[in-house]
Structures are given as C-alpha cells and as structure tokens.
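WARN retry 2 of 3 for item q-0093 after timeout on previous attempt; input resubmitted unchanged.
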Amino acid sequence: MNNRSAGSIPYSMLYQVNRAATHLLLTVLLLLAITPQSQAQLGISRSKGQQLLDGIVVKVDNQIVLRSDVENIYAQEVARAEGKLLPPDLKCKILQSLVLNKLMLAKAETDSVTVTDQQVNNELDRRMAYFIQQIGSEKKLEEMYNKPVKALKDDLRPQIQEQLVQQKMQETITGKVSVTPKEVSAYFNRVPKDSLPYYSTEVEVGQIVIPAQVNEKAKQATIAKLNDIRAQILAGADFATLAKKHSEDPGSAAEGGYLGFFKRRELVPEYEAAALKLEPGQLSPVVQSQFGFHLIQFIERKGDSYSTRHILLKPATGSADASEAGKKLARIRRQILADSISFAKAAKEHSSDKSSSGNGGLFANRQDGGSRLPLDKLDPAIFFTIDTMKVGHITPPLPYRTDDGKEAMRIIWLKSNTPPHQANLQEDYQKIAAAALAEKRNKALDNWFLKNRGSVYLEIAPEYAQCKVLDVEE
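OK item q-0093 returned
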C-alpha cells in the first residue's frame, strides 16, 4: 500500500513510523479493551453530544474493522504530533494498514496459520508486566481500570492472539527478505541530501553483570518454607490456593500456579527434568533453577506436550552477598585493563545479562539492531555514569538491580562516543540498512497484497468510501 512503501520518504521518517507502531502496541492495546465505564474512571471524557466510537467500517471476509479501531489510533497519532500538522489522509492510511492486517488474518484462517495458547499467555504476561512497571504496581493497575489483572488479561487475549497470528503471517511473507550492501547504498543515494537526518550524540556502552549470591541461610529458609507448603498439600490443602497466596511467579500465581502446556526443551532443564519424572497429581521435591526454588505438581500429558503448576519462592539476598560479585568483577576489570582478556569475551563468559552478553556486552539499539545509542535516550543510571567517562574507560564494580528485581553488581564500559553529524554510510550503515530492509519488506507485503486482495470479500462503510484501501503502488 502506498502508505507503507518508502518511495522517496527519507529513512528517518521510516523510523518514526516504526516507533509509532511499537508505541501503539504498548499504549493503545490496553485502551481498546477498556469499557466505557472504566474509560470515564480514567478521565477519558467526551464532549457533550459526542457519540461512542462504535460500528463496523470494514469487513474482510469474517474479519471486521471498527470505527473505534481507526479513531483510537488516530487519537494517539494526534497526541504524538504535539500540534504538528498531520497528513490529511491519515485516517485512510490507518484504515489501509488495518485492512492489510485483517486480510492477513483471513488468509491465516484459510491457511491454518495459528499460534499456541502458551505463546499468547507468554505475550500477555510480558505486556502486563510492562503496564505494571509503567504504572507502579499491580494494585495500582487494578485500581486504575477497576478490574483484577486476570480480567484485564481476558479482555486483551483476543487482540493479543490476533496480533501474534498477524506477526506469524507477516514473517512467512517477509522473513526471507534481505538486503545487500549494494542495495543499501542505492537506497541511501535515493534520499535527497537535504532530507538526510541529523543525528545527536551517540554512544556504545557495554556492561558485565554478576548477580549477588544467595547466602546459605536464606537458601535453607526458602527450602524449608516450600517443604512446609508441600506438607500442607499432601495433608489435603489445595495447591492452587497456596500458589495464589505464596508463589512469587507473577505470570502464574494468579492462575493458581498453572503454567499451561509446554513441549520438551521449552522450560529450563532443571524444571523439566523434575516435572517429567512425575505422574499426574504427583508433587516434586523442592527444585532449584535460575529463577529460584520450585514446588511442581504434574497435571497431564497431551501428545508430546505436558502441563504443570508450580509455586516459586525466591530467597532474599543481603548486601553482604553482593561483595563476592564485586570482587569477581574487580578481577575481571583488571584482566581487561591488562589486555589479558577482551571485554567482549569476558562478557560472554561471565555476564548474567543475556540480552547483552552475546553482543560483546554492548547494549543493543532496538530500532536498527546496532550498538550505537542516542545519548539522550539512555537509561538515566547509564547516562549519569558515563557522563564524565572517557572513551575506553571501565567503571569499578557498581551496585545494580536487574529487571526482575535481583541484587547484582556490574561494570560499565564506554566503547565509543560519536559526535552529532548528518547521516552518512560510513557511520550510520546499520540504520540505513534497517531502513532499506524495511522498504524491501514493505514491497514484499505490497506484492502479497496484490496477489491476494481479490481472494476475499471486502465491504467498506460509506464514510470511508474515498479511501482506496485496495490500491498499492505498482
């Protein structure tokens, strides 16, 4: 579709579109599932006489697009624009993208493209954890929407499933698309020189993280508590009730510890090995994994999958526990400074942060897959740490709390500092390549749309009749 093809659009604009899509997934999604009553509680007001955003505006086979789908995304774009002029055909472009999504869903249905319940559950847990983090706590989230987290998940489930199916269909269409250096160069040369973006200061920053070790006293206390819970269950107490009360797994505690069905090698080895030794209804002894200590109850086997529930407890760590991690990091730092080992190799061998250890310890830029990050977009803790550092410097061990709340220590390395500059192939190849790839993938989607648009029934409401949703640039 013409709103997705890059054409003469500078690649800087493509990144704005990509960021918008990500932003909408994280902010509009929850809003779409909110009832009119809870919208009022959130302060989402309507002017006097304004009607509820309702009604079907497009049908694509059995799939529908609601007026509220278009209007909610449009409202988000207006908010993001902060008073800047928006394209006059923005609603048509939004509708075109929604129609493409619905066409992919319709074709997914006929082609039997599906996602598993566990994939949906995992994505629900991830999204809900994000919302809870943004709002401050699970209790605040429930108070804000006047619903328990389980009800919010139930509201979101159909939309999450649709999004995952759309992603899977899009991957089948564009997954094998790639770009060569020649294509990247040609893409860059098509961008008018006066449209090239000007980048602010960018840095490459690495870290090596070592978690605090749990002291033996805390570990034994956790094991004892789980054994006490196990005894209660063997004496007749309900596993699900005790899981809701005690489990520290935010993804399953509210479900009575139920994890759903998994295939072999989808769960951590220690958990799987203990679970598969059990018969339906049996309890495991206390099992240790990287996440803490588990009490597992086996539920059933179904083909090559199995289902379980568990109670997870995590031993508390004390400040004294971090000292050993700090000493180890200090030794690693001395080795790096003495050129006995590279930072990248040390990160791969020692860092517990999986998102960076495989990348030489460097933080990744999620926009283009590279390692250069805009200075003004850094996490404040990183920003103020490197603010006075020289390139090549490595900090002494610093206290750190991981994303899942565990105490740890880390060292931080400032690898490079690129001053503000206009985009060029030498310094910004990753960004340009990502934009060129996005354009090529968009063309692949256009070709797929051209091939399949006639295979579905399409009906458009009169208010959007002027939107040529079936047109693409050929």
